[in-house]
């Protein structure tokens, strides 16, 4: 069985599925809440769950670092955040651990789990990841830093400067680009010259790996290798996960203006949740019953999280003025 | 005359100029098929084709830099920054290049480009989709900076910007986009860059402002009229070159001045206006020049409680005017 | 007490802080073996080794971004921009990231970094090796901005900057580097960020300025003393946070104020200072606040005739003071 | 004979040598003038002549465009500039065709020859080249654009954004990186991850070619192919020329602090002038006599240029204020 060959226990394989499902269901909930007028904005991980959970499982969540991007709900959950954390952020409540309600959802940051605070301008975090890795090198630590962005964002100069810097200093950074075929409305062929992000690794003397982003085990394999290279002091790796954004760019987007429904339906057939569920069923790690139980548990979790977040307090207006500088 | 929204005036000005001059083209993220995330380029793709309504990769420095190259060649590019907040990666190209091309080449080269960018808050855009960035550019000789407040001004000024032989930053207040409607003549009129506009005549207190704050100031003036306070509202429309004459005239009208902007107080353009008044109209003043602006915190937070606290509104402006009137 | 040059004080402050705190490290272009193109890091490479005195690739965005990542991790990086003019590619990292990390994370993360940059002209550096860039940052809440004028202030302020828990931009006037010498105590003193300094007491006219212009103002004051004009010179030292109290006190001393900077007039920091005085010290003023600054042209040209025309000097300052005195 | 195989006539082969020699002698003259205190600054093409002249000969100087960098004296001469133009610029005289004495030497720009005006911040011009090529595509022209930078500068985000943009739109841009082993003091291995700039082409779906930068014919071959690809509409090419900077970075640099004299002497053995001269001698295209005559002609030319430039007028101080905007 593939997961065992990769060194994953059956429990881990099921746990991956659970995280993928938790991310999907939490995400779906935010769309419902948005359509009900309860939260102003949704940015989604749907279509990225396998890439994120696969990558997260390759990390040592006790010591590795993460500089994520806005779709990384799955990743931050593996690192330690919960559906409740996510919903507090979606509702912009004071208890939001990322920003105290100051930032939009998807702008992660959690000191508890070494998830660096992020912003909206894309790809800046790839450079921060490099800086964290350099600091780790100065301190002779053996953690790695995983950092992510989309394929559109990957064209920003910052990623290249970061890859070059990390390459020169052989820093343990994993640059993971989640290629979901679109940057809002702009498709891959108008965005990425040559069509492959992975092909850019060679230009910086690092491996550039392209993997099926709908297969959590393949992503796990690629990221695990990158993690090991990093820990051995062999430097950074570029990993490109290929999948598809199953929903509009955000709750403000209307993707019917730039892609056909057929294309979306076609992509849904490769939905990682569906495929990986089948893998687990095929290998007897999941049954219809145990799956239903997982779903039920998750529903309870997401319900409770929604309830808690909805009732939680907004930050007091006076908070506006705090923490421009150290106080 | 047609009544249209602020954003429709943006689109109309571009359409007319593209019809008029085949050198004009538009480039930016999602400006093509999607017609822009705010729909400012709606319809242009189908009318002018993908070469003149160009969906670029997600790289602001390249958007600006490509526009600069094309402008130097002889084209009249209109580059869209999806949000003003995302102009930051393009600053080197705008400040080091566009602003200095004519000067450094001793008038042998020029850079007739327009950079359009939606700025400002009040739309739950949080820290990175709400910023006012004009102050970063108002001190850079070589750039013209336009910040219209009404559909009429948008059309006339955007046409002037496109026809201008030097780089113009055209900042569109995104809250005005659909909220502000007004009459827009069908004819091919232009409004000169560098001319302010009295949006309301008054005798007690002068408000000098621009963008969305013009509307808030007008609403405040309405409120105060009932209490017998007569407010003069000067809409700067263009920040650089500043219409100093109009500023000094407006000061002389009332002797009491409130400079208002949504941008942070410290280092905002209001300081420049206030300094000019203090230097050149000192003896016209019946009270110290007052500034009312956003607080000195990094940007507008997401949570509704915080956003409300941050942003100016007619009441806050009315309060400041009243204080001045009573001075 | 040792007499040393301005740049020697820069080096000394870094050396002492690196000895004192192993978290401090330096990074930038040519800062290592070469000791910096101005020799500001001279000797640090041999004393602290290449990991703590890091020669980076020629990528300012990565220099800033790596420093940000390392600072968020817990290091205290000092990033050198080879010339202030070349900070432009790093602006997204500085404004969108460094300045906002504490605020956006609700105080959970911070960014204790220093960005050092030589600025200013008068050294035949032409358009791109002469610029004053402070105005681009003075309106960005979350950044502290220091602009010392003497070796004594350099040492005390740079130490404070390195120990500060927030990002500090430390602008060193490159003409001061070897020209300005002064006494620097051997002990480990610091000067608080945010405190201005009266560099000369006087009763007729107050000059408020910073950097190299402090020396020109002092020379102008000497000249004018012979004619019986007594000049008060306030050196702001820190632009943000501004020492408002000291400014208002200096205004009250004479009632006549000249604000001076080398940077262009329009949009320069002088406007902010002048606006504050106009608002808060209106009734102390015996004459309008005057500003004297570089002309509103893109930057200092190369040719000696043009450079001389552009740049302020003691005579130009003396002339403006005299006019104010005679007002 | 190699040059004939490449389609170059004997006259052209000799002409290349003449240009290489002219560039070298003009460059040497500026060092003498600098050491004599007559000009403030030198930035050198020594070691780059073969790369530049080889590339220049592959262009159609009647229609192709150039966005050069500061070392490109050889290239701008092939395009049409003269030793006198260069010296006027070195002396910062009003007649300097690049900038009227406003910019440092090496900041080329000449509308007559389609040489775009350049700045100091490195690599911005690679994006402009892309914009010019896009404009050419809009106008259905068949010119190509050659743009150059150093290997250190090649790491700037701007080059990557430009290559991606040009790659997506299959624009006729030749990105030529002159790898001279150093960026001021920082050697290749601390600068360029992986050590090869050419290897980066593949990441953008374009050929990445590495050639001996000391052989003008090899450079000609590579750039010629790139030009033909470009004209055929097949898109951009990345060309890396490998040579060595034979002199310090600039007249402000002291290269003894970071590289051994032995290394420099070793490199001088591969000096392209020396090698290519030998090639011409070996094939009977040059004799000691004809060479002496070329040298004598060039000496006369450089003497006259020096003389003219030295006597030429500086710009009038009033020029400082001109051409911020169109007048
Ligand atoms: C510097 C910058 N420019 C523009 C934006 C607006 N924006 C947000 S997401 C996005 C598309 C990103 O596409 P991609 O990188 O492919 O990631 P995906 O959303 O597809 O996962 C854009 C243009 C931004 N956030 N930052
Ligand atoms: C953005 C920017 N940063 C720094 C500098 C200062 N600088 C000028 S040339 C140079 C080194 C360039 O090295 P390389 O690109 O290899 O070109 P070379 O000089 O070797 O030909 C540096 C750091 C600059 N001009 N622009
Ligand atoms: Mg995408
Ligand atoms: Mg080099």
**Helix and strand composition category of chain B:** alpha/beta
Helix content of chain B: 25-40%
User: What is the average per-residue confidence, as pLDDT of chain B, rounded to a whole number?
Assistant: 98
The largest sheet of chain B, given as strand count, sense and whether it forms a barrel, is: 7 strands, mixed
In a nutshell, what does this entry contain?
Chain A is α/β, with parallel strands linked by helices and 327 residues long.
Model description:
The complex is a heterotetramer, with two copies of chain A (about 325 residues) and two copies of chain B (about 325 residues). Chain A has a single domain, classed as Rossmann fold. Chain A has twelve helices and seven strands. The N and C termini of chain A lie far apart (about 55 Å). In chain B, helix 2 links the parallel strand 2 and strand 3. Chain B has about 325 residues and is of the alpha/beta class. At the B-C interface, helix 4 and helix 11 of B face helix 4 and helix 11 of C. Bound molecules: thiamine diphosphate (2 copies) and magnesium ion (2 copies). One thiamine diphosphate sits at the interface of chains A and B. One magnesium ion binds next to strand 4 of chain D.
List the helices and strands and how they pair.
The complex is a heterotetramer, with two copies of chain A (327 residues) and two copies of chain B (327 residues).
Chain A: H1 2-5, H2 10-35, H3 49-57, E1 65-67, H4 73-79, H5 83-90, H6 124-138, E2 145-150, H7 157-168, E3 173-179, E4 182-183, E5 186-187, H8 188-191, E6 208-212, H9 216-231, E7 237-242, H10 261-268, H11 272-282, H12 288-311
Parallel strand pairs in A: 1-2, 2-3, 3-7, 6-7
Antiparallel strand pairs in A: 4-5
Helix pairs in contact in A: 2-3, 2-4, 2-5, 2-11, 2-12, 3-4, 3-9, 5-12, 6-7
Chain B: E1 2-5, H1 6-20, E2 24-28, H2 44-48, E3 53-55, H3 60-73, E4 76-80, H4 91-97, H5 101-104, E5 114-119, H6 134-137, E6 144-146, H7 151-163, E7 168-173, H8 176-179, E8 181-184, E9 197-200, E10 205-209, H9 212-225, E11 231-235, E12 238-240, H10 244-254, E13 257-264, H11 269-280, E14 290-294, H12 304-310, H13 314-325
Parallel strand pairs in B: 2-3, 2-4, 4-5, 5-7, 6-7, 10-11, 10-13, 13-14
Antiparallel strand pairs in B: 1-8, 6-12, 9-11
Helix pairs in contact in B: 1-7, 3-4, 9-13, 10-11
């Amino acid at each position: 069985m593939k997961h065992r060959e990769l060194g994953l226990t059956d429990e881990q394989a099921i746990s991956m599925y659970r995280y993928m499902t938790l991310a999907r269901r939490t995400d779906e909930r935010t769309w419902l809440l948005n359509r009900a007028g309860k939260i102003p904005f949704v940015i989604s991980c749907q279509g990225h769950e396998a890439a994120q959970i696969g990558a997260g499982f390759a990390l040592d969540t006790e010591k590795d670092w993460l500089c994520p991007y806005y779709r990384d709900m799955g990743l931050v959950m593996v690192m330690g955040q919960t559906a409740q954390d996510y919903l507090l952020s979606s509702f912009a409540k004071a208890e939001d651990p990322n920003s105290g309600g100051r930032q939009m959802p998807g702008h992660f940051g959690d000191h508890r789990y070494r998830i660096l605070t992020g912003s909206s301008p894309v790809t800046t975090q790839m450079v921060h990841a490099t800086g964290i890795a350099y600091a780790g090198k100065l301190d002779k630590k053996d953690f790695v830093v995983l950092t992510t962005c989309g394929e559109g964002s990957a064209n920003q100069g910052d990623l290249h400067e970061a890859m070059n810097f990390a390459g020169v200093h052989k820093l343990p950074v994993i640059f993971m680009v989640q290629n979901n075929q679109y940057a809002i409305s702009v498709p891959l062929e108008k965005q990425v010259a040559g069509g492959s992000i992975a092909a850019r690794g060679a230009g910086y003397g690092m491996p550039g790996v392209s993997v099926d982003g709908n297969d959590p085990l393949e992503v796990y394999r690629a990221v695990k290798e990158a993690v090991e290279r990093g820990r051995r002091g062999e430097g950074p790796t570029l990993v490109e996960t290929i999948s598809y954004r199953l929903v509009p760019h955000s709750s403000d987007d209307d993707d019917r203006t730039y892609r056909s429904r057929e294309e979306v339906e076609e992509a849904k057939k490769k939905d990682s949740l569906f495929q990986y569920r089948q893998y687990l069923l095929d290998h007897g790690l999941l049954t219809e019953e145990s799956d239903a139980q997982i779903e039920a548990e998750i529903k309870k979790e997401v319900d409770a999280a929604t309830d808690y977040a909805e009732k939680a307090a907004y930050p007091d207006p006076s908070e506006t003025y705090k923490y421009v500088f150290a106080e | 005359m047609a009544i249209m929204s602020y954003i429709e005036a943006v689109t109309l000005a571009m359409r007319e100029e593209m019809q008029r001059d085949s050198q004009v083209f538009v480039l930016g993220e999602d400006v093509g098929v999607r017609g822009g995330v705010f729909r400012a380029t709606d319809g242009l793709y189908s009318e002018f084709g993908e070469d003149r309504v160009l969906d670029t990769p997600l790289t602001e420095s390249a958007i600006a830099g490509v526009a600069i190259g094309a402008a130097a060649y002889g084209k009249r590019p209109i580059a869209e920054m999806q949000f003003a907040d995302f102009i930051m990666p393009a600053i080197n190209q705008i400040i080091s290049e566009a602003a200095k091309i004519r000067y450094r080449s001793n008038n042998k080269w020029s850079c007739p480009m327009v950079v359009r960018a939606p700025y400002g808050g009040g739309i739950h855009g949080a820290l990175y989709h709400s910023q006012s960035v004009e102050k970063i550019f108002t001190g850079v000789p070589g750039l013209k900076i336009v910040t219209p407040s009404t559909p009429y001004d948008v059309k006339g000024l955007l046409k002037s910007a496109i026809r201008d032989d030097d780089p113009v930053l055209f900042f569109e207040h995104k809250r005005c986009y659909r909220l502000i409607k007004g009459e827009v003549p069908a004819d091919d009129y232009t409004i000169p860059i560098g001319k302010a506009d009295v949006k309301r005549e008054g005798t007690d207190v002068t408000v000098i402002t621009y963008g969305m704050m013009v509307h808030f100031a007008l609403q405040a003036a309405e409120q105060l009229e009932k209490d017998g306070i007569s407010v003069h509202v000067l809409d700067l429309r263009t920040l650089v070159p500043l219409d100093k004459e109009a500023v000094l005239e407006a000061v002389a009208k009332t002797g009491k001045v409130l400079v208002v902007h949504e941008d942070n107080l410290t280092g905002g353009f209001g300081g420049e206006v206030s300094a000019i008044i203090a230097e050149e109209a000192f003896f016209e003043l019946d009270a110290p020049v007052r500034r009312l602006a956003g607080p000195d915190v990094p940007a507008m937070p997401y949570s509704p409680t915080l956003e409300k606290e941050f942003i100016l509104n007619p009441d806050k402006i009315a309060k400041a005017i009243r204080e001045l009137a009573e001075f």
